[in-house]
Each structure stands twice: as C-alpha cells, then as structure tokens.
Design goal:
The complex is a heterotrimer of chains A (569), B (312) and C (300). Chain A is mostly beta strands. Helices cover 14% and strands 38% of the residues of chain A. Chain A has three domains: 117 residues, Nuclear Transport Factor 2, Chain: A (Roll), CATH 3.10.450; 101 residues, no CATH class; 299 residues, Beta-galactosidase, Chain A, domain 5. Chain B folds into two domains: 145 residues, Cytochrome Bc1 Complex, Chain D, domain 2, CATH 1.10.760; 115 residues, Cytochrome Bc1 Complex, Chain D, domain 2 (Orthogonal Bundle), CATH 1.10.760. In chain B, 38% of the residues lie in helices and 4% in strands. Chain B contains twelve helices and two strands, in the order H-H-H-H-H-H-H-H-H-H-E-E-H-H. In chain B, a hairpin with an 8-residue loop joins strand 1 and strand 2. In chain B, 35% of the residues are buried. Classes of the chains: A mainly beta (569), B mainly alpha (312), C mainly beta (300). The interface between A and C is large, with 49 and 32 residues.
C-alpha cells in the first residue's frame, strides 16, 4: 500500500512548468503565495467551475456590458473556452471599446454600423492567444472574430493593479530596493510595450514589468500574471537611450545559472557527505571530490551524452549534450539551478539528493526534451548516480541511452563481475551487458568494485527496484584504465557516441583497448537503455499536458536509470 | 603464309559454330553462370533494401525488417510512411517456409505474393505508399545501374509490379536462420549447459504445446500456426482475435513481443498462457534455453545484407 | 551605338546613385552545371543545409507545384564537413558552404569549424576552400567558427563572419573579405573584434556596404566596402532586433535585401551554445528604408 502510494506520487509528480529563479523565497510554490494571490486564484477556480467561465469586465456603460455578454455567450467563442477534452480554459475580457472605422474592414462596416458596433478583446491564458471581436449590439451578433497566438491585448486595470501589488509585496523587491515600496512608486507607463510583447517566453505566460526608479537607476520586475508571481528583477540605468531594459526573462535565468553554477564550483556538506558540483559545458551536472566521512569515494561523476533514437533501422535520432545555457556545447540546457532535496524512503529521511533539470523551452510539446540528473547520497554510505528522461521527444518509439562516466578515487582498484561460478575479476578493459538473463549475487549485485583493501562497493543496476518509476537499466558497463597522461573524459567530453547504435557502440568503447587492469585507477562508463511509452496507464519517459484551473500543467512520467553503489563490509 | 592443316580448320569452324549455338541457346548463362531463379533472388535482394520503392523515397522493406534485428524493427508497432502506426508488430521474415500462414491475424492467407500487396499498396496506413498505376517509379529505377544489367540478364525490358512482387517473394523465401546452438545439438556438435537443459525441460512441459515444430511456432495439436484468443490491443474495449503463433527463434533481438508488441521483455511473455507462474530460477533457466535458439550467423552472409550501400 | 552605350552606362550609374534606395549585388547565382549533367530538372530544386534527417548539403527536388519535396541528391563528399550552415551559390554555379554544429559536435569537430568549403560547379565534388585564421583556439565553451557568408557579384568577393575563440568575456570574432579565384579564396581584408552572424552586401546610394548582425546584441550594423573590397570604418548602427518579435532578443542569422527599400532579417535565438533538436526558433523581420533610415515593418 505504502509502495503504491509512493509510486503514485513519483509517477504523477506534478511538474508545474514554472520558472524557478532563486531570487527570493516568495517565488513559485503555491503554498508560499501571498493571501491576496490565493484569494484571486480561488475566484478563478470558482468561475471556471461555474456556468459562465469567461471573466467579464463589467463596464458601467450598459451597451458595453451588453457587447461583452454577447461575445461571452457566442458559439464562436466556444472553441476558446473548452479544449478538445472538454476542460475549461481561462478566458477573460480585457477590453471593451467603441469600434473605430479603422477596426472595420469594408465588408464588415455594413454589418456593424457606428453607434452599435463595439470591439471586445479577450485573452486565453491557457493557450496564450488574443481574441479580437466586433459585436453588433443591435442584432446581438458577433460579426468578426480573429485569434492570434502568442500575443496579448492591453491588460485591464485590475491586472495592472494586481501586478503592482505582487511586486510591492515581494520580499525580493524589498531586499533589492532596501525598503518596501508603495504602489504609487511602481511605474507602468514605461513598460507598455512589454505588455504587448510578453517576455515570459519560456512559459508563454502573460507578463508585465512594474518598474521602481531609485536615483539614477530603475529596478525592473517581471511579474507573471498567469501564475501570479514575481519571476525576476533587473537593474538598469535611467536615462539610457532606450527606456526598455533590452533583457528577457530567458536571459535573466541564463545569466544567473551561468554566473552561479557554470563558472564556479559549489559545495555540499551534509550527513557526513562532502562533495563539489558544477554545471559543465556539455557533461551535465558534474560532481567531484566526493567523500563520505574521512574516505574519498569518487574523483568525479558526470553525464556525458544522451543518445536518443527514433528509428532502430534508419538510424534517425539525436545525440544531445546537457549543460550550461550560455557558451557551451549543450543543446538542452539548465534553466533552473541545481537543488538539494531530502531523500525519503516512506516517511523516513534517509539522505539527500542533488538534482538538476535540463529543458527544451517548448516542453512538454513534441520534439522538446526534459532531462533530470539525480545524485542520491544516503546516510548509511550508499550512493546512486542516476538520470531520467521526462519526455517528450519526437515520437513514441524513442529509445534513450544516457552515458555516465564514473571515476572512483584511490589507487588499487579492482573490478569484479558476478557469474554462474561466483565473483570473477576483470583483468583487462572490457564491457558487459545487463539483460534479462543476467545473473546477480544474492545481494542483487552484478558487479563490485574495490577501492582499496578497506573500501568496497557492490554495484546494483536498476531492475525496477528503486521505486522511482524505473523499469530496468538494460545497461552496458565498460571499465577502462584511468590514464593520468591522456584525457579520456576528465575534462568536458564532446559528444562521444552516435544516436542510434543498438549495441555496445555507444561511445565509451573508444576507450576500451583490452589494456590490462593493473590494480590502478579505473573509470566506469555506464550506458543504460530505456524505451519510451505513451500507452495510457503505461507511460514511461513521457510527459503530457493537462488543464487545471484553466491553465496547462504537466504530468510527467520520468524513466530513471542508474546504478546504486552499496558499501560492503 | 603457311596454310593451316585441314583438321585445324575444321575444328576451328566447329568451335565457332558451337559457341554461336551455345550463345543462342543459353543466352547470358555462359557469361554469368546464374539461373533465372538466382537472378530473381538477386533482384529481390536489391528491391528489399531500395528506398526508392516507396512513395516518398524514405522507406524500404528493410526499414521494418532489419537483419540486425532478426528482420524486425524493434517497435511495438511499425510506423507507416507518414508516421501512422500499423495494426501489428513487425514479424520476422526469416524462415518463412516454416509458417503455414503469412499474416498475424488472417488464418486463410497463405500466399506471400498476396500478402505483399498490403505493405506495398495498402493505405491504412500507408507503409510503402505505392500505387499500381504509378509505374514512373519503376521506369526510373529500371534505368539505373543497380537494375539495368540485372534486368537485361533476366530478359526483362523493365520492372513491373508483377516482377517486383515475384522477386521479393523469391528473396524473402530464402532467408533462413536455423543454425543456432540448439540446431547444432542434433548434429551433436555442442552440448547444453545445466541451466539450458533445465530450461529445455521447462519448455517441453509448458511451451512446446503451442511453440512446437522445427521453428517453435506450431501447435502440436492440429499442426497449425494459430493460437488461442488474444485481445487485439490492451485497451478495455479491444476486439478479440486469434493470432499466429510466433517463432521462439532469435528472441533477444526481436523485441518487443506479441502481435501488438505489448511486452518489452521475454519474461513478460511467460505468463500469457497462464499455464504456470515461474519462479525466478525457472525464468532464468527458460531464458537460458531460449538463448540457445539464437542464430545471427546469417549476418556474415552478404545475401542478407544491404547491397546498395555504395549507391547511396 | 556609342550613344546607346553611353546612355546605358549613365542609366546604370544613375540607378546606383538614387537616394534612399538599395541595390542588391548578391543575386547572381547560376545553376550549377553538374546538376544538368545528372539529368535533373533544375528549375524545380534548391540546395539546402537544414534538412533534419540529412547531414551536410543536399539538393532537394520539388514537385510541379514546388510545394512538396519529391527527392534529393547528395554527393558523398557533401557530408565531409558535418552539419552545415550558410550557403552561397556564385555566378558560375559553385556552391560555398560553412560548417556549423547542430545539436552536437559529433560530426563537427570544433577544431574544424573556421572553414569554408566549395562544391565545384562542374564536378559537384566538395572540397576545402579555406581555413580562416582565428585569434584564439576553439574551446568547449564556444564550438563555432564561420557563421555567415555573403557574395559580392560585382567583384567576385565572398564575405565571411566568424566567432571562433570568443568567450563570455571577450569578443574575438572577425569578418573577412575573400577574393574568389579558381575555387580558392584569398583574404583581402579583416575586421577584428566583431562577433557577427548574418551578412548582406548591398549598394546604398551607390556606396557598397556590408551589413552584419551582431551575435551578442541583435543590432545590425553596416560598414563601407571600397573598390578593392576593403573595409572602411567606422561602422554605423542601422537598426536592431532588440525587443522585437516573440522572443525579444533574436540574433540576425541571415540578412537579405528585396527591391529598392526592403531588408529581411532572419532572427534566431542564440546564446553561443548548440540548438536543441526541437524546431528552430526563428522569425523573419522586415525593415523598410524610409528617408535613409531602416524602420521596422513587421515580423512573422
């Protein structure tokens, strides 16, 4: 029962596709949103469940009120209110105006005469689409409707006020300014163009930028009005040739990640574990100098490549590298910073996880990618190096093959494989496949590695036993000699393998030369294989969007793979 | 100039006459040494791998029947020309003479020529997307170096659909994989290990009833190829049908399994007959036995491989 | 007769000096003779370096309506440089291309990206035309080299932009003018300290100018080019892609001119890292020349 609950939580982990900038504590998590935002969200939820899900402006002029009512109840608007599955999308009236001659084309002018013709502008938050309509209040019909994706009309005053309030109440803004501003200090005039061309591009949300001038500088804030939160800030000098900041939310995120995690190493010390970590140019999140207690465990571990194959026979696919968003050879980049999270088994905290995500911007749309790296460190000395694809990729017949490089510390290393006749030491560089017919030791180890006479680890590949949704690694393990004089992957490795080989030729075989393993330092390369699955109820390495409270959220089905290392007595 | 002796003159003349007669009677056989059957197989070999034999030039027969995957394609269900899923999992085309029927679900379909019409000319979905009225594809292929010489040897002016189908049938019907460890056992060249032997006994007791015969695909009760009822797919309102019993040869390279590719692992298939639930040891033993049915020695034979590499 | 010639020359000269108008000098591409030899209907085809499933250069063949691709040809040498980017077809039908890594560097060794290759117009064989000098070695933080090409038909000069060796903190890119002679290239002049991507050479008011898109800011500059195809500084700012379009920070990847007053700029997302396998994020920006200033018109 407990396993099922835990499994359900993992499988159905809600990945609210939001930007997680660590600029302030008031960002993003629903439970931390201010009371006024939660009230607003509750109003939205109630309305979406009502018989009239479209939010009306309720202008005082009766003719204008009538115009928006006609539009809200029209059949033409219906496809913008419900999606194909019948879920309600969040749609609001942003403006009601008397139609000008310039709003009407020649064929429309006769159907919508002056005096009874009104323009009603709406916005669909779910699909980021502006809808412009012309309404004849005499005949009570909608004579014209145009929708334009990825654009927004001018926002109504209540949303402007809300944006100002979110910015003013933000601890991040207070910290940046050195004081808590009041609403009259927020200037919106200079950001009008930002309203029309939203910069919240990664989530395609509606965003505005209230600005606070302080001396000769201005503090710009980006407020996401779809999710009602602050997502970033930036200082500029007032009096520059352009009043616009010339920055985008994407740039803000990328600069933050690059400054803080790509160009320098960070450290974690927790529960007897000590390690460094850094985002690399193309090898994902790398950990190094890993120690447990007073023992050196790893020199380094990282994720070298993601091979993604869409055609077993045509060889069509991609070899992706993951890493830094600026100046790198990464194709799928880190948008959020690395996280240190609690590691739980049931209700018990048994360690911590160092986790990093890499996204394509359009995820979970087709041909966009989301990869996750997880380094698990247990209080009892176990550790696991794993990664997952979270869909969506370019098809439902995809095969993912991540390639890990794991370099243990200390000299005098020996590598053993469990066979029918017991433990068998490898004398030379080679590779081995884990498949259905693989035999494991009674402790479920396929291999073991000794670092010296006192430190040994059993290697347990994934067989679906880790309660993380994984279904088995089907992995190739390669062992090579760690050369001091030649760089065989110590520094950032360019893509080492093609996308679509179906055998051991995933890249590390280049370093396998049958050299004798002379009890020196070894490098382990681990290439697992996962086939994605979009069948309902069996989703794997997959993601899909669903509508909740009028906006799209994502349901993800990650496919974790990676070996567990267990210290042996 | 010295006059040649008469016997030389006479023999030379006879030799010339003999050669002329031979050429007239035997045509190109003297030059190539290949029979029409061999030529047809060779023609079928090239056509099998030729992506020009598809509406948009992106697929060939080998796209869904790759020799490296036991002449399957590794998908649950194959993908048609424009990304649509086919109805069934791609079956192996090895050892076709071991099957009474050629289709997953049609027990009356025995003719490979008739069956070929589906992937070639079928529209739901389009697999190769060809149409019989479109002979332009064949005309242009006929003039290329890959086919021109071969057609001349065959005495065909150019390709037509009947020739194409016939050639493909000749090629496919001669794809064999029966040199596994278990096959060699009969010739006493090898011995099974302990685990493999135990697995063999489990097979005899639980699997042979349906997966019998020389290709492990025949029901011993009635000797036909068709099995018990399965659902066509795993959805709750799926239709039920009888499906052709697949062969147990080359399983590790022909995943996923079943007519709809519903199983990723061999061991997932063990319980479908509901005969018995195996414990872990029994699974390993049965897997051990099934591994003795692998034979990929054909990959060393160029007849099974892509002859058109250098033409790409 | 002489009067006619004189009149003709006067007309040409006068069109070159019409104020407020531009004249494109890049539209002289000739159909490559090697295509005709292969019995291809060259009226329904085009070269491409951006086909998802095909590495390198291909020649695509379209149907009658030129809406669907019905086939392609690719000489074996056309894959030698891996993934390619800019293409220029010159007035003899030779095809000039440069490598740009896409998604990964598996087929594009960063050491070999500062190069230009040429497909011979007669044989169709691709070979290395030039290895351009870089001010710094390529590194794992910037795998790129040549980014843009533009062809001056009048003088048979190829312009190339390169960002090789640039880093977050240092701009080390260069723009070259290269003379074409017998399928080889000779450097005529170099502009250093510029990370540029898209290039477009044009005559404005009779003066030849090379337009280039800044790969960091999204600004579009131009620099005068003299009769010997050498650059005359200073460059001037013409317009910018900043804050335009869906993304707001696009970089000008390609610049072309249409008619007497239109410039079309292909803007892409670019942060000196590789593009993921999803659909390329690109928009087309149109600028119109009004009173000698480039004014933004629309974006698609």
């Amino acid at each position: 029962m407990k396993d099922n609950l835990f499994r359900t939580l993992i499988f159905c982990c809600i990945s609210v596709f939001s930007m997680q900038l660590a600029f302030g504590q008031d960002i993003l998590m629903t439970k931390e949103q201010p009371g006024f935002v939660q009230s607003e969200l509750a109003i939205i939820k109630d309305r979406l469940n009502s018989s009239q899900p479209v939010r009306l402006l309720k202008p005082t002029a009766p003719s204008m009120a009538l115009a928006e009512q006609i539009v809200a109840n029209s059949n033409q608007l219906a496809p913008f209110i419900k999606d194909l599955n019948g879920s309600i999308m969040r749609v609001e009236v942003f403006g009601v105006f008397k139609a000008l001659p310039s709003d009407k084309s020649a064929d429309i002018a006769s159907k919508c005469p002056d005096g009874s013709c009104y323009k009603v502008e709406l916005y669909n938050f779910s699909i980021n689409t502006a809808i412009t309509t012309l309404v004849n209040t005499q005949t009570k019909e909608v004579v014209k409707m145009i929708s334009i994706k990825n654009t927004q009309p001018d926002i109504p005053s209540y949303l402007k006020d809300l944006a100002i309030k979110i910015a003013v109440e933000s601890k991040t803004i207070e910290k940046a300014l050195g004081y808590k501003p009041n609403s009259t200090q927020a200037q919106m005039a200079g950001t009008k163009t930002s309203l029309n061309k939203s910069r919240c591009e990664r989530s395609l949300h509606l965003c505005v930028a209230p600005t606070f001038v302080q001396g000769d500088k201005a503090l710009w804030s980006i407020v996401d009005l779809t999710e009602m939160k602050l997502v970033g800030i930036r200082w500029t000098k007032v009096g520059e040739s352009e009043a616009r900041p010339g920055f985008t939310e994407r740039k803000l995120q990328n600069e933050y990640i690059t400054n803080c995690f790509c160009e320098k190493e960070s450290k974690v010390e927790k529960n007897q574990w000590k390690l460094n970590y850094q985002l690399t140019s193309s090898d994902g999140l790398k950990i190094s100098k890993v120690e447990f207690g007073d023992k050196k465990i790893l020199d380094q571990a990282k994720l070298v490549d993601w091979h993604v194959s869409y055609s077993n026979t045509d060889g069509f696919g991609y070899s992706d590298a993951v890493g830094c968003p600026f100046f790198s050879t990464a194709a799928v980049v880190a948008i959020d910073p690395p996280e240190v999270l609690e590691l739980k088994e049931g209700n018990e905290i048994v360690g911590f996880v160092l986790q990093q995500s890499f996204f394509s911007e359009g995820w979970p749309a087709a041909c966009n990618y989301n990869y996750v790296q997880r380094y698990e460190f247990y209080n009892d000395g176990r550790f696991r190096i794993s990664a997952a694809s979270v869909g969506r990729g370019c098809g439902n017949n995809g095969t993912y093959r991540p390639v890990f490089r794991i370099a243990f510390a200390s000299e005098m290393q020996q590598f053993h494989e469990y066979t029918q006749s017991g433990w068998n030491k490898w004398d030379s560089e080679k590779w081995q496949l884990q498949n259905e017919a693989t035999i494991y030791s009674p402790e479920k180890f396929q291999y073991k590695i000794s670092l010296n006479t006192k430190l040994r680890f059993g290697v347990e590949p994934g067989q679906g036993q880790f309660n993380d949704g994984g279904r088995g690694d089907n992995a190739y393990m390669y062992v090579t000699v760690a050369h001091r004089e030649i760089d065989e992957g110590d520094t950032d490795l360019m893509t080492i393998g093609p996308c679509c080989n179906q055998d051991y030729q995933q890249g590390p075989e280049k370093f396998v030369n049958s050299e004798p393993l002379r009890d020196g330092k070894l490098v382990l390369w681990y290439s697992a294989m996962m086939k994605n699955d979009d069948r309902p109820g069996k989703e794997y390495c997959w993601a899909k969007g669903f509508l909740e409270d009028g906006v799209f959220k994502t349901l993800s089905f990650p496919c974790f793979v990676g070996p567990m290392f267990i210290p042996l007595p | 100039m010295k006059r040649q002796p008469s016997f030389v003159r006479i023999n030379s003349m006879k030799l010339c006459l003999f050669l002329v007669a031979a050429i007239l009677v035997f045509g190109f056989k003297i030059e190539t040494g290949r029979t029409p059957l061999e030529l047809k197989k060779e023609l079928g070999h090239r056509l099998f791998y030729d992506k020009r034999l598809s509406e948009n030039g992106t697929k060939s027969c080998a796209t869904c029947h790759d020799p490296n995957l036991g002449f399957t394609d590794g998908y649950r269900k194959s993908i048609g020309l424009y990304g649509d899923e086919t109805r069934f999992n791609s079956p192996s085309v090895l050892n076709m003479d071991g099957f009474l029927t050629v289709s997953w679900a049609d027990s009356a379909l025995h003719s490979l020529v008739v069956f070929l019409e589906r992937p070639m000319f079928g529209t739901t979905p389009k697999e190769l997307g060809l149409t019989k009225s479109n002979v332009a594809i064949l005309d242009s292929m006929s003039n290329t170096e890959e086919y021109k010489g071969l057609l001349e040897e065959l005495g065909e002016p150019k390709l037509d659909w009947a020739t194409v189908e016939s050639a493909l049938v000749h090629y496919i019907s001669n794809l064999y994989s029966r040199n596994s460890k278990f096959d060699q056992l009969k010739e006493k060249k090898v011995k099974l290990s302990k685990i493999e032997n135990l697995g063999f006994k489990i097979y005899l007791k639980n699997c042979q009833r349906c997966h019998g015969g020389k290709d492990f695909n025949s029901s011993l009760e009635g000797g036909n190829n068709f099995s018990a009822i399965f659902s066509e797919s795993e959805t709750s309102n799926s239709t039920l049908l009888r499906v052709r019993i697949p062969s147990l040869r080359n399983l590790p390279i022909t995943a996923p399994y079943m007519h709809d590719g519903r199983f990723d692992k061999i061991s997932d298939c063990f319980n479908h007959s509901k005969a018995k639930a195996f414990n872990e040891d029994e699974k390993l033993q049965l897997l051990g036995f099934l591994n003795t049915l692998i034979d990929t020695s054909y990959l060393k034979n160029s007849y099974y491989l892509d002859p058109l590499q250098h033409y790409k | 007769m002489i009067r006619c010639i004189l009149l003709f020359e006067i007309l040409i000269f006068s069109t070159n000096t019409i104020n407020g108008q531009v004249i494109s000098i890049s539209d002289c591409k000739k159909q490559s003779p090697f295509l005709s030899v292969n019995n291809l209907d060259v009226s329904k085809g085009a070269f491409s370096t951006s086909e998802r499933r095909l590495l390198g250069l291909v020649y695509l063949q379209y149907d009658e309506k030129q809406t669907a691709i019905v086939g392609y040809i690719q000489h074996p040498t056309w894959k030698m440089a891996g993934s390619l980017g800019p293409i220029v077809v010159d007035d003899k039908g030779a095809v000039w291309v440069a490598p740009i890594p896409t998604i990964n560097v598996l087929h594009n060794n960063p050491q070999k990206q500062n190069r230009i290759y040429v497909v011979d117009e007669i044989t169709g064989v691709m070979s290395l035309a030039a290895e351009l000098p870089g001010s710094a070695l390529p590194n794992e933080n910037n795998p790129f080299g040549v980014m843009g090409l533009s062809y001056d038909c009048e003088n048979r000069v190829l312009f190339a932009s390169s960002i090789r060796g640039s880093s977050r903190s240092e701009v080390r890119g260069r723009i070259f003018s290269l003379e074409l002679k017998d399928s080889s290239l000779t450097i005529l002049d170099t502009l250093s300290g510029i990370d540029a991507m898209g290039l477009g050479v044009v005559k404005m008011d009779g003066i030849k100018r090379l337009f280039y898109g800044d790969a960091r800011s999204g600004n579009i500059y131009s620099v005068q080019v003299d009769v010997q195809s050498k650059f005359i500084l200073p460059a001037r700012l013409e317009c910018s892609l900043q804050n335009l379009g869906l993304r707001g920070d696009d970089i000008p990847r390609k610049i072309r001119f249409q008619g007497p007053d239109k410039m079309i700029v292909h803007g892409v997302e670019f942060y000196f890292n590789l593009i993921g396998p999803q659909e390329k994020q690109e928009s087309l920006y149109t600028f119109k020349l009004k009173e000698n200033k480039w004014v933004f018109d629309n974006v698609n």
